[in-house]
Write a structure and sequence with these properties.
Elements lengths: L7 H11 L3 H68 L11 E7 L5 E7 L1 H27 L4 H11 L12 E3 L5 E3 L1 H10 L1 H8 L4 H14 L1 H4 L3 H5 L1 H9 L2 H19 L1
Antiparallel strand pairs: 1-2, 3-4
Helix pairs in contact: 2-3, 2-7, 2-10, 2-11, 3-4, 3-5, 5-6
Length: 268
Amino acid sequence: MANINPLGSALYNTNYLFGANNDKQDSIAKLWSGYSSYQSNAQTSLAGLTEINTNLKAVLASYDDAKNAFNSEFKDNMETLSASADKLKGYNFKVESEGAITNTTSTDDKGVTTTTTTYSKDLQAALDTVKGFVEDYNGTVKFFGEYSSVSKRIEQMATTFGDTTYNRNLSSIGLTANSDGSLTINEEKLANAIVNDPDKVSSILGKDGLAGKAEDHISFANSQADKLFPTAEKMLGSQLETAAIYTGSAYRNMSALQNVGSLLNMMF
């Protein structure tokens, strides 16, 4: 009967995997060399993914900062303009005409004549009310104009606030609508309009005119507040999607591969 070595089967399998004698050492060396190369590539890839992950976080943090800044500025503009519009809407432009406008002429030593115009307290208050509204309105027009390239909705807001074609009578009381929708005041012409025809001024600037229209714009803007600034996906597009892909399961898989490498290092 043949002598059967109980280790023969196991030895055969080992030889089959690694080779016999010196071949076994060569096989292990080849295995380790192949793994070392693969681990090195994995480490390089992981480093790249780590950088992508870090950059993605930085980009999203910048996005959050920009969105929060826009929302804060938007809220301030709407609240400020709303208060100015409310004041202008109900303002009583009827002032005492007697002494409302005083022109004083003086001549210096060189014969140069200067005319100084002063307004009564009530007329000056009326002018300041209009100027305050115009300043806030122009600030809002500028705000939406600066952000108009961010989204179509913000661009629409810029167009909405920049449209003054609904009231072509502004120029008759000293207000000029500029090409960007902002307003410019001819103070002398406005002062004379207030003194001579306060009802007309109230009609053009009041609840049925500029102030009322501004409130409509504000109401519309507030209804769109949560949709004006685009989402991160819309703003960053495919770049964000690609970064998310490479920092998702791929990042976890690379980390897992390095853990396997550490285990193999311990085994050998």
